[in-house]
Amino acid sequence: MNHSAQSAAPKQPFWRFALSSVSSSVVDLAAFQLLCIPFQAWLGNAVYIMAATIAARVLSSLVNYLLNYFLVFHSRAQHTRSATLYTTITVLKTLLSGVLVSVIAGWLPAAVPELAVKVPVDVLLFFFNYLLQKKFVY
Fold it and tell me: What pLDDT digit, counting tens, does each position of 22-36 carry?
């Protein structure tokens, strides 16, 4: 293996993780956006962002777990163990995302869409998520 191939090899899981995350984020953001309107009507302003965040994250997490297990980390870990750890990290990350988006959205004018707050919050959480999954899940 030449030097450039050796230096690129350790980065490959990160880039596969990034691509998996982008794919899952598209699912997450689309579901979040689609759910905000009916959830706001059904649940009111106090909790609709959290409810939309949780519902969208459940769907996108299933997509993400499977992509990461099979394509990113090529895991051989037992699904019971890896899925439990993945779910724990995802639940904590989802709660943190929902709380941060709700708080920040509350500080901003009503004309600022929730999605404009959610994207930068979730980008920051992405880096922590990669480190936790790499070290503990797969």
Answer: 999 899 999 999 999
